[in-house]
Amino acid sequence: MACDRNNLIGKNGKLPWDIREDWNYFLKTTYNGILIMGRHCYNEFEEHAKKREVIALSRNPDQHFPYAHKASSLVESLQIAKNLGDNRTIWICGGNNIYKEALPLADRLYLTEIDAEYSGDIYLPAWDKHFTKEISSQTLQTSTTELTFRILSK
Ligand SMILES: NC(=O)c1ccc[n+]([C@@H]2O[C@H](COP(=O)([O-])OP(=O)(O)OC[C@H]3O[C@@H](n4cnc5c(N)ncnc54)[C@H](OP(=O)(O)O)[C@@H]3O)[C@@H](O)[C@H]2O)c1
User: Fold this and answer.
1) Residue nearest atom 4 in ligand 1 by C-alpha distance
2) Which ligand 1 atom lies nearest to the CA of residue 71?
3) Which protein residue's CA is at the shortest distance from atom 10 of ligand 1?
């Protein structure tokens, strides 16, 4: 999850910002894993889904995702991910509702804090009751802002 100072994460189905370092960190960190995401996130990510193992969520039985497995609940998506096997890391990639459902189940939280304010319409759910221990924190100064890449556990 990457958020601005106000916990904003999305705007009109896209990221509110265009920060190369944030996007590259996401792609690199999740590279070999299995990505679980909601339908809106999938639409934004589709180009990359061709080269990744992605499970996209929708409750609509007619919904089809050309480059992803489809699940109709988080539980079903986790079962599909386990069946895909290889002990690969399963990454919950949002959006809001899926983050909320997954917070009690996830082992780690990868949180990127962006030291700036943007406009948008999708916010992070409250995560601080679930993840209380910081494992690491690294700060990076970009040409426009400062990013803090945090990893937290329970
Ligand atoms: N900054 C970040 O780290 C970050 C990360 C992720 C996303 N985002 C941003 O957040 C926005 C997208 O998030 P979002 O919350 O609007 O949408 P989303 O979670 O990507 O998609 C919502 C849709 O996913 C399906 N869905 C959600 N929960 C489900 C469940 N439990 N079971 C089955 N289907 C489920 C539903 O599809 P149906 O309507 O088809 O049933 C729902 O309408 C974008 O702006 C994106 O850029 C930002």
Assistant:
1) 9
2) 33
3) 10
Domain 32-92: homologous superfamily in CATH:
Dihydrofolate Reductase, subunit A (3.40.430.10)
Going from N- to C-terminal start, the domains of the chain cover 1-30+106-154, 32-92
Task: Name the pTM for this structure.
Answer: 0.97
**Those residues with Cβ within 8 angstroms of residue 51's Cβ, 6 or more apart along the chain or in another chain:** none
Q: Which residues pair with 140 in a beta bridge?
A: 147
Distance 40 CA to ligand 1 centre (A): 5
CATH of 1-30+106-154, one of 3.40.1080.20, 3.90.226.10, 3.40.430.10, 1.10.3210.10: 3.40.430.10
Please state the length of the chain: 154
The one-letter amino acid at 15? L
pLDDT of residue 85: 76
Index of the ligand 1 atom closest to the CA of residue 74: 31
